[in-house]
Amino acid sequence: MNDRVLVFEGIHNFRDYGGYAAADGRLRHGLLWRSGQHCDATPDDLAGVADLGISTVIDLRGDSERQLMPCLRHESFDGLVLFAPGETAGSELAPHEEAGRGITTADEARAAMTRLYENMPFRMVLVRSLTLYFEALATREGASLLHCLAGKDRTGLAAALLHRLLGVHEDDVMADYLLTNVAGNQKRRIAAAGASIRQRYGSQITDEAIETLMGVDAMYLDAATRSIHERYGSTERYAEEVLGVDATRRQALRQKLVN
Questions:
Q1: Choosing from 82, 137, 148, 160, which is the catalytic residue?
Q2: Of all helices (H) and strands (E), which one includes residue 34?
Q3: d(CA 234, CA 118)
Q4: 148 labelled catalytic
Q5: Looking at domain 2-257, what is its CATH homologous superfamily?
Q6: Which of 20, 65, 114, 185 stands the most exposed, by the fewest C-beta atoms within 10 Å?
Q7: What are the residue ranges of helices labelled H in the chain?
Q8: pLDDT, tens digit, for every residue of 73-85?
């Protein structure tokens, strides 16, 4: 799985989420990229990203996040950056930051993250962002980059939805989601986030709680999936009724992304 990961200095969790076996073949490599924010990207990082030929960027962050941490782009980048205006996480904070409010221990952090995931698929600005994501994948040419702040929660949900709609085996869906926990320089990523979370909420938050907030757990994605199925019966029906991904759009996704 780590063969998928590109290690950059200032961009975390950068990886290819294509290549998995799907219902009608295999997802193409080199077309589907995901990551965290690019605000801290170095010139070498930007050059490495430019080499991937990305023509579409789908930014799942909210307005406040984009304003506070504007992503850097290589001077040669001439692609399209898509986002929905508003706050995709329900506040000005990323989900892992929002979950840090009022917690101290790892167990409390895990419970807070699970509660956030239960509602994440129905947050209206994120829904609009996901609608843009699926529209872009079905209609635009070239490679795409999907990212949020940490590249693990909103991005993880979006990638899992695409995988499921294209028939990727559930084991691979979860393996790709959990790859966040070992992708790239974990110590640097967690330390940077830990300083921000403690500055916002206080020093009482344990190291284990910070690691929990900055990681992913199967129970988080399971919580989102369970909420989707409770309301809509299936991922396919949710995608069609909420995100506009009907049978025609699913076929377009297969034609673009599966060989």
A1: 148
A2: strand 32-35
A3: 15
A4: yes
A5: Protein tyrosine phosphatase superfamily (3.90.190.10)
A6: 185
A7: 43-50, 63-68, 95-98, 106-119, 124-139, 154-165, 170-178, 186-201, 207-214, 218-232, 235-243, 247-257
A8: 999 999 999 999 9
